[in-house]
Amino acid sequence: MMKISILGAYSTKFGELWKVSPRALAKEAMESALKASGLKASQIDALFVGNMLSGILGNQANLGSLLVEELGVQIPAFKIEGACASGGLALHNAINSLKAGQYKTVLVLGIEKMTDHSQDEITTALMAAGSDEERMAGATFPGVYALMAQAYMQKYKVTEEDLAAISVKNHYHGSLNSKAQFQFLVTVGDVMRSSKIADPLKLLDCSPISDGAAAIVITSENIVKKVRKPVQIIASEVGTDTLSLHDRKSFTSLSAVVDASTKAYKKAGIKPENIDIAEIHDCFSISEAIATEDLGFSKKGEGARDIAKGKRTLFKGDIICNPSGGLKSCGHPVGATGIKQIVEITEQLRGEAGKRQVSAAKIGLTHNVGGSGAVAAIHILRI
Amino acid sequence: MTGIVGYGTYIPKYRLKLSEIAQMWGKDIVEIEVGLRISEKAVPGFDEDSVTMGIEASKKAINMAGINPTSIQAVYFGSESHPYAVNPSSTTLGEYLGIGNNYFAADLEFACKAATAGMQVTVGLLGNKNIKYGLVVGSDTAQGKPHDALEYTAASAGCAYILGNKQSEIIANILDMSSYSSDTPDFWRREGAKYPSHFGRFTGEPAYFTHVLTEGKNLLAKNKIKPQDFSYCVFHMPNGKFPRVAAKKLGFTPEQLAPSLTVDKIGNPYSASSLMGLASVLDVALPKQKIFFVSYGSGAGSDGFILETTKEILRKQKKIVSVLKQMEDKIYISYATYLRQTHAI
Amino acid sequence: MITSPVKLWRRQKNTSALIGKKGKILNWTIIRIPARSFVDQAPYPVVIVKMENGENMIGQLVDWQEKDLKIGKEVISVLRRLKTEEKEDIIYYNIKFKPL
């Protein structure tokens, strides 16, 4: 059975990185991941890039070839896109190339540069993740998730305050993460007072616009590394669902996540309760509530309430969710998130997470979603 | 004989009180309301235009007529606010109504009488047996320039009439029609101009009254018929005062005119104005009643019609969404919202 | 979103068939930070409607008041202009919903 090991992992700071160009962002992430892996660029067989908006915002296609220039070697390079799940999908494809025996050691980069563009350019661009019907209805990304939030709140009698607790938790975690975009605490009151974006979602229910990149080096080589403890990726699964929210069977559960995670748990030979830590795709507070139910951590309808009770919080919960601060506090450069999640779990499993270290973490999961749930990539890691 | 087999009307939901306009420009509202005899006007939604309103009205007309849209063989769309300067509203309308492709079509412009001119064309096609059914639409979202007198009256609405030849379907026969036309520059709008211009008091006696009264008198004389022979009269309504004066001068009573005076509650929706008054009368008319109908379009001309209702009208009146009901189905907006909705800001 | 004349034309028959259909609001939200094309219309509600034929549709709610924003509220589909166009652009019509 082939083992997929992570040799090196690195994330840049996330935030409004005005001075840093996309090339510089990629260079920093790739070179640092290589350094951490103890390898040179010439030892990499291929580059997989996860990115959503280079074409839409930057008018730049051919991103694989562009970014491989920053590595200084002419190796095969690919851009893989699945909206906000681009990072997770890039990793899934990289793993498949290793399993196929085509490559042995590859670099996977997630990258997004958003702040060069105006707010309404970005709002418009992000709706590329949805459907034409949604765009023509004047829906925005927060708008689609707001519809989910209303359905969830109505069905399970959950309040806006319950959802606000999710942002509170993630900001608490982010305050312990020097790479996070926002390192300040927020209260439920702060969230409730923040301005409405798409009723009932408010500013502090929504992840921010960010720049950032994250990179990992993975290998199928049977190398015993004494430099780093080997974290292994023991499952990599993808699921899809309809593009439009209104075409789905449920507005309060993402079947793409359920499908992918069911396959992942089976592949890994574990159950949800075996997960110690998870990086969840909380593009909006409601997303995390629904995710913890879809992943089997909480019973249906109890996700938000369990988070409010502290069951997913650092130092007191059982399955710690978003120790990095999640998308809300750490930031959400869309293509980079899926890989940053892997970087976080890797650091946690290796005991290198500093102030936000989860003790005795052995098994971690990453949950990366594209659009309002049209695609999901689930990875399970173990040390 | 040719006549109306179905009609439909559409009044947008929003209303602006004339007092809001008067307050904006520091005018005496009492003086204005007394002069114009209007208290509020219909304002279109941000995303409405003459075509969308035309579709709403036409669907009701088709429902009343009880025909398949594909049997409509002519579409004439009259408006002063066609969405495009060049691109036919009539076929956009036709396509969204599912009429098919086998029909005569054209867009008409003749200020407020564009649609009644379309009716006359359609009567001709029916009489010549070129078509079995023809659809005529009068619909406008034309506006008046802020701070101008027309601002108080310029409104929006849409009307649709389906004409046919089958006696068993006709609710009002068109017994006769004629027109009086001239070159009289009382009111105009240049290419590219957002708002129309007018020449104040010149729009009265030499324009509106000369055409409406002369056409009216000619039509009565030609048919050797008197005002007393009619149950109703309908005139174009640029404001509440002019049709009342015209009716009186031609020898009609206030009672004959009253059911048609939609202007009092919705203002003047240009190409839909006289047709809205006619619909308001047809909503309540009984069989075998004569209706005297004279429209007016600036520039200028008047189209006159003598109609007589049939017994079919009772059955088809059951299908109406009445003009009265739509006039009362309203949301009041502020002057600022009105500017926003009419794309002035 | 792309609003080319070809796309408008290709979709017309479908759009035409959807006018005047009734449904009930399943969920609603109010968009306060819109995409570029809709900036001049915000804030406006977007609703998911369960149509009488069982299918769901998403659309903008027009001619609305606060009291219309209720789960289960009956609505009807209408044809309206999609957005405010540039001076030389094609005019694009789209299905929206109006409270009954």
Defining key terms:
heterotrimer; B: about 350 residues; alpha/beta; Peroxisomal Thiolase, Chain A, domain 1; about 25% strand; globular; C: about 100 residues; mainly beta; OB fold (Dihydrolipoamide Acetyltransferase, E2P); 1 helix
* Total helical elements of chain A: 13
Major beta sheet summary of chain A: 10 strands, mixed
Pattern of helices and strands of chain A: EHEHEHEHHHHHEEEEHEHHEHHEE
**Over the alpha carbons, how many angstroms does the gyration radius of chain A reach?**
19 Å
Tertiary shape of chain A: globular
For this structure, the CATH topology of the largest domain in chain A is Peroxisomal Thiolase, Chain A, domain 1
Q: Quickly count the domains of chain C.
A: 1
> Order of strands across the biggest sheet of chain A?
3-2-4-7-1-8-12-11-9-10
Overall strand count of chain A: 12
What are the low-pLDDT stretches of chain A, counting only 5+ consecutive residues below 50?
A: none
Distance between the termini of chain A: 16 Å
What do the pLDDT scores of chain C average to?
95
Report strand % of chain C: 35-45%
Uncertain regions spanning at least 5 consecutive residues of chain C: none
CATH architectural arrangement of the largest domain in chain A = 3-Layer(aba) Sandwich
Going across the major beta sheet of chain C, what is the strand order? 3-2-1-4-5
Give the overall shape of chain C.
globular
Work out the helicity level of chain C. 10-25%
Assembly context of the chains: heterotrimer
Describe it for me?
The complex is a heterotrimer of chains A (383), B (345) and C (100). In chain A, the strands form 2 sheets. Chain A has a 10-stranded mixed sheet, with helices on both faces. Chain A has a two-stranded antiparallel sheet with strand order 5-6. Chain A is an alpha/beta fold and 383 residues long. Chain A is globular. In chain A, 37% of the residues lie in helices and 18% in strands. Chain A has 2 domains: 5-118 and 210-219, Thiolase/Chalcone synthase (Peroxisomal Thiolase, Chain A, domain 1); 143-208 and 233-382, Thiolase/Chalcone synthase (Peroxisomal Thiolase, Chain A, domain 1), CATH 3.40.47. By secondary structure, chain B is α/β, with parallel strands linked by helices. Chain B folds into 2 domains: 3-170 and 322-341, Peroxisomal Thiolase, Chain A, domain 1; 172-315, Thiolase/Chalcone synthase (Peroxisomal Thiolase, Chain A, domain 1, 3-Layer(aba) Sandwich), CATH 3.40.47.10. Chain B has a 9-stranded mixed sheet, sandwiched between helices. A 3-stranded mixed sheet of chain B has the order 3-2-14. A two-stranded antiparallel ribbon of chain B has the order 9-10. In chain B, strand 4, helix 4 (89-97) and strand 5 form a beta-alpha-beta unit. In chain B, helix 6 runs parallel beside helix 7 (241-250). The radius of gyration of chain B is 18 Å and the shape is globular. The N and C termini of chain B lie far apart (50 Å). The model of chain B has no long low-confidence stretch (mean pLDDT 96). Chain C has a single domain (5-99), classed as Beta Barrel (OB fold (Dihydrolipoamide Acetyltransferase, E2P)), CATH 2.40.50. Chain C contains 1 helix and 5 strands. Chain C has a 5-stranded antiparallel sheet with strand order 3-2-1-4-5. In chain C, a hairpin with a 4-residue loop joins strand 2 and strand 3. The longest helix of chain C is centred in the first third of the chain and has 13 residues, at 5-17. Chains A and C meet through helix 4, helix 5, helix 6 and strand 5 of A and strand 1, strand 2 and strand 3 of C.
